[in-house]
Amino acid sequence: MKALVWHATNDVRIERVPDPTILNPRDAIIKITTTAICGSDLHLLDGYIPTMQAGDILGHEFMGEVVEVGKDNKKLKVGDRVVVPFTIACGGCFFCGKQLWSLCDNSNPNAWMAEKVYGYSTSGLFGYSHMTGGYAGGQAQYARVPFADVGPLKIPNGLRDEQVLFLSDIFPTGYMAAENCNVQRGDTIAVWGCGPVGQMAVRSAFLLGAERVIAIDDVPERLRLAMDGGAEALNFDDGDVFERLKAMTGGRGPDACIDAVGMEAHGPTLDAYVDKVKAAAFLATDRPNALRQAIHACRKGGIVSIPGVYGGFLDKIPFGAAFQKGLTFRMGQTHMMQYMQPLLDRIERGDIDPSFVITHRLPLDDAPRAYKMFRDKQDHCIKVVLKPHGETIH
Amino acid sequence: MTSTINVADVERWASAIGGAALTAYGIKQLKDRSPAGAALAAAGSALIYRGATGHCPVYSAAGITTANDTDGTREALAGPRGVHVEEVVTINTPADQLFRFWRNFEQLPRIMDHLVSVKQLDEQRSHWVAKAPGKRTVEWDAEVISEIPGELIGWRTLEGADVVSAGSVRFKRAFAGRGTEVHVRLQYDPPAGRLGATVAWLLGHEPSQVIREDLRRFKQLMETGEVPTIKGQPRGRQSMLNYD
Questions:
Q1: Is A246 on the interface with B (CB under 8 A)?
Q2: What is the pTM of this model?
Q3: In CATH, what number is assigned to the domain containing residue A194?
Q4: How many domains does chain A have?
Q5: Per the count of CB atoms within 10 A, which of A48, A121, B19, B216 is most buried?
Q6: Which residues of A touch B223 (CB under 8 A)?
Q7: What is the CATH number of the domain that holds A359?
Q8: Which of these three, A331, A354, A373, is where a domain ends?
Q9: Could you tell me if A151 and A19 lie in one domain?
């Protein structure tokens, strides 16, 4: 099959690789009909994520058709159409039992690596370094899905791939970020970062009853897209964010702040061993500007919700402000399986069509070029979807 | 733990790894006439000698031949000379079920990567074969010396084992239905004391990490029915050639 393969910083390629096979009894093999590039994939392109190895297949937002199932998989059948969540969960551990799916105990074969850095290992992820399991990803024609009787969501006919594809990551991620804001009647939610997750967070905040959403970025087309969704735009190049947020909220501050930016941890790229991972994590000099602003701007007793990815150590976080104002912090990778079905229901009801975020539709063969276009925000790129089997691009 | 030292599977296995590693490494180095290997070879020889004869002061005290095994084993495996490993994991599975899996020793190679096979000889005794460096294997017999169904298995190696060890696995119900805590204790005294463990560590068989990974696989298998893996999945080339 063809797949997008990581080789080194700024070096991803389309290659022929062997087709995936069933490796465990609960696996399934998916023929991928549509896949996407995530903003977090750009950290891999840029070489900020440790424990990558040349030859790794990327991609964690994909859907398709089941073509093979393992002998113990009682849920899926050949021919089922499914969206695959980016987190892998076993369904049987303490954490899965508490709906904390992204904290699954059992799905990371390289748990020891994560334990060295974080104390405990969280769930395995597709196509996102060996510290999160080293699973081959879904920017490919086929993918093997472990614990496929837990994660993949069956999709009824009548919905287009593009309407449901983002149930794989960014829609649940933006939605959980908004849900973590515990939106109350009359609330104003401020969202830092108007990339795809920020866009989903804006719309989700309204779905959950927010009165106002203020979207903060400096890319005009992204601010415009947020305004299309009902947000008020705040361009951070135009002046002090705190003062303007304060003025926009009657001097009180936003009730909740969403950091949909995250940071890129600095560090060596190729070193796969634990001491290097640890060093990379310890040496991280992240850029938590958005998080600092969010903490500073948030109203007293408010909530800071963080869907943006952090991996290392943060410097000069105004923790005094967080403490004195009695803030609540909510964060973490998305507990996908808790959100996929309810959000599919919302899509079916017509509450939202997440395909609004798509700006580019390309064949998989163009993925290397698309990565660079997305990273450099060329051609007003916000979200790229890829077709791995050469179907008509619509 | 009780005053009875229990020779658990894991404990035996880790002891064997340490001992086998030292022995094999020592022999290899001796063949290579490596000056650095001489000490290791000597240590390896000492290990074999001790294992075979039980004349090591520590090991003979370990209760292989004395009437009062318990005290002897404790003496041998306590104090600064012994390698002590304790690991714990909480598994979301009832204790009885975990106990049944573990007590059926022949299943243990499914979770213990370095075991080749285990054969039950009778209700108490079993024969173990483990991988050793250089495609060798190491074998030993072990016996269950303490057993409380659903709660505890204790074991020790029998006379003639390359490494004498003792250990236990204890299954303790966690609070409020939060699964079962599995406590493994393992003690062994490789020849030349900590050198054996050091060699084992150099060879990638650091005992507590190895046992931690065994317990992780045990948990994975019990909670999910399989052990997650990426072995055998596709990956790209590592050459400079492009698909195009």
A1: no
A2: 0.82
A3: 3.40.50.720
A4: 2
A5: B19
A6: 90, 92-93, 105-106
A7: 3.90.180.10
A8: A331
A9: yes
**CB spacing of B236 vs A144 below 8 angstroms:** no
Residues A99 and A155 reside in one and the same domain: yes
Whether A47 and A100 share a structural domain: yes
Same domain (yes/no): A146, A13:
yes
Residue numbers of the domain that contains A12: 2-169+335-387
Enumerate the residues of chain B whose CB falls inside 8 A of the CB of residue A120.
Answer: none
Whether A392 is covered by a domain: the verdict is: no
Partners of residue A24 in chain B, C-beta under 8 Å? 226-229
How confident is the model at residue A127, as a pLDDT? 97
Select the residue of A13, A91, A109 nearest B228 (Cβ to Cβ).
A109
Same-domain pairing of A149 and A54:
yes
**Nearest chain B CA: its distance from A74 CA (Å):** 13
Query: Residue A394 has which token pair?
Result: 């619509």
The answer on A91 and A160 residing in a single domain is: yes
Identity of the residue numbered A125: L
Closest Cβ–Cβ partner in A1, A15, A146 for B237: A15
Residues 6 or more apart in contact with residue A145 via CB below 8 angstroms: A27, A28, A29, A30, A84, A88, A151, A152
Task: Report all structural domains of chain B as residue ranges with CATH numbers, in order of start.
Answer: 9-224 (3.30.530.20)
Taking only the tens place, the pLDDT of each residue in A132-153 is 999 999 999 999 999 999 999 9
Does residue A157 fall inside a structural domain? Answer: yes
Note down pLDDT in tens along chain B; length 244 residues: 333 333 343 444 444 444 444 444 444 444 444 444 444 444 433 333 333 333 333 333 333 333 334 444 455 555 555 678 899 999 999 999 999 999 999 999 999 988 899 999 999 999 988 877 667 777 889 999 999 999 999 999 887 766 667 889 999 999 988 999 999 998 876 655 554 554 465 445 577 888 899 999 999 999 999 999 999 999 998 644 433 3
Residue type, B53: T
d(CA B38, CA B32): 10
Evaluate whether residue A394 is within a structural domain.
Answer: no
- Report CB contact under 8 Å: A136, B90: no
Please report, to the nearest 10 degrees, the dihedral formed by the alpha carbons of residues B112, B113, B117, B118 taken in order: -10
Q: Which of B212, B223, B237 sits opposite A55 (nearest CB)?
A: B237
Residue A91 forms contact with B (CB below 8 Å): yes
Residues A44 and A68 in one domain: yes
Run of H or E including A33: strand A28-37
Query: Are A142 and A210 contained in the same domain?
Result: no
